[in-house]
Amino acid sequence: MRLDLISKKSATLILATLILGLFTNSRAAAHDPKLHTEASKTKAEITVTGEVIEPGCFLIHGARGADHKACAEMCAKGGTTLTVLDEKSNLLYIPISPEHGKDPNEKLLPFAGERVTVKGVGINKYGYHAIAIKSVTRAEEKK
Predict the structure, then answer these.
(1) What is the Cα–Cα distance from 81 to 94, expressed in whole angstroms?
(2) Which domain range does residue 11 map to?
(3) pTM here?
């Protein structure tokens, strides 16, 4: 019986070590700039259709849509950067300004809580997705 107990403990320890190792290696890989060289060079014209959201309230309690418009506007005016939730990929796109000192919310603020189509230069780096916005228009109604 003692041998069975040792074997179960050993198996559990080995499994825990493997899981911890996989987690640690995947976390390290996600933050290794050398592994993101190609992605960081990726800059292409993209079009994203989705909702303009305030990421804090969306991530914390799922707030979005017309009911959250006033809150999203207030948070954006207070300094939060609005994002676009891509309806196809569920990725959050951070608006960036190609010019220093420009407010990245400027083009999105009028559309807070609304479905939009955003065109611009997409940049993927270190797991983040950003877009240097060229244009924002209200998206057509979903069918």
Answers:
(1) 7
(2) 2-31
(3) 0.69
